[in-house]
Specification:
Layout: H1 3-14, H2 17-35, H3 41-48, H4 57-81, H5 91-102, H6 106-139, H7 144-156, H8 158-161, H9 166-180, E1 183-184, E2 191-192, H10 206-222, H11 247-252, H12 254-269, H13 275-289, H14 301-325, H15 331-342, H16 351-354, H17 357-387, H18 392-411, H19 414-432, H20 437-460, H21 465-469, H22 474-503
Antiparallel strand pairs: 1-2
Helix pairs in contact: 1-17, 2-3, 2-4, 2-17, 3-4, 3-10, 3-15, 4-5, 4-6, 4-14, 4-15, 4-17, 5-6, 5-14, 6-12, 6-14, 6-17, 7-20, 7-22, 9-20, 10-18, 10-19, 10-20, 12-13, 12-14, 13-14, 18-19
Amino acid sequence: MSTWELLASGFSVVFQPTMFLMVVLAIVLGTIFGALPGVSATMAVALGLTFTYTMEPIPAIVFLVAIYCSSITGGSITAILFKIPGVPSSAPTTFDGYPMAQKGQAGKALGVALFCSAVGGLFSALCMFLLSRPLTNAALAFGPSDLFAVTFMGLSILTCLDSDHVLTTIISGLLGLLLACIGQDKMYAVQRLTFGSRQLLAGVEMIPVLIGLFAVTEVLKQTNKKDFLNPEDGIGGGKVNTKMPNLKEMWSLKWVMLRCSIVGTIVGILPGAGATIASFLCYTMENKISRHPERFGTGIIEGVAASETANNAATGGAMVPLLSLGIPGGNAAAVMMSALVLKGVQLGPLLLVNQPTYLSATFASMIVANILMVIVAIGIAKIFAQILSVPYAYLGPIILMLALIGSYANQLSMADVQIMVIAGVVGLIVKACHFNSAAMVLGLVLGSMCEANFSRAYTMCRGSFATMFFRPIAGPIMIFCIIMLVTPILMPAIRKRKAAKKAA
């Protein structure tokens, strides 16, 4: 299938009347979910799963991608107006967005955020379309050893998720790997950690765990708060008129948007990294290379542009490993992967070879979503100050109801509901102990794939580790993984030695 035929097939799916209305609905839902404090992009996608159970696989991923892209953008609304990031990846937006709002430039800050979000999203969608197929063709040459190395590389990213708490992050990832071991061994049919329960023979379902860790945990945290978010607490008494940047401002941001689009897309491609790391990394990068670093944090459009371009660029990057290798680039992509696996889709290198429409439909939905979400977000920003006046004590039960429906509808099993509740309680414990829930989810998602590929490679190589890893692809990747794992341990020791020499 040629490129033009591929594009035509993707846009023909998106612009079907029923599907287009579903995409518009997804954009509205995603923007609102993203703007609501405590509702992350991953939670938005997880809650959107309830709408996809009766859909075919391709319309389902189109719908979920539209929610994903728009929820990342929606997070900038409350970040700018209330200094409350709707999604974690919008946290750096508060550094300059809220000071701009305090200066009476809330509309300008929102306009810059929406414009840069669209640019970053469109850039990453184009990169996804161009990179996924070549990466798929290269992946066809991957053996079990190479696939294990790739999935292990995703696990090695754990050391970068939280550089200030490397040990607890690694422990969280190991707990996720432990959860992935629950069930029946796929190679030898041995029961592990089932405690005699038949319901755990198939393992722990990802969807209830994701909903529990991200949705239930946040609701349990927020509903205990008695404070209200009143419209008067916002900027302009709840009335905001979004002002798009003029040509001069757009031109002044060209290099910021280009750098952050590239870096954001690359970070998004890395398994387990995601939009939050991309936004913090690009904000820090722009601060360091700026001629006026002292102005960052005082309310400048460069700070808003860096954060919002990067986190939206990560959305397209996260879809690259999902579509080409069957490895989620982030938590939201992991939820999408769960939805596709639930529908019997075999993710991996052969997906885009046998069914290239998945790539074109995802590309088309990202293009449409990144354009329409600007219009939707402008309308939502005007009324959102009134939505924020609803206390979380009322909003939380609605989210819990959707979470219960999504978990039960997964397999029509009360066991999944129980897993969701347990995961929610575990999520509270994880946060109280300063562990990393994202690392735990990464371990759960990649654990089964990592184990399956290792078992196949070990069997094929007859127990020889040298044969497994002395390969053109697996070898360099494993060396990179070892460096990633060892660096956080060695760097503090090196810094202490340098400090001791200087003191001497």
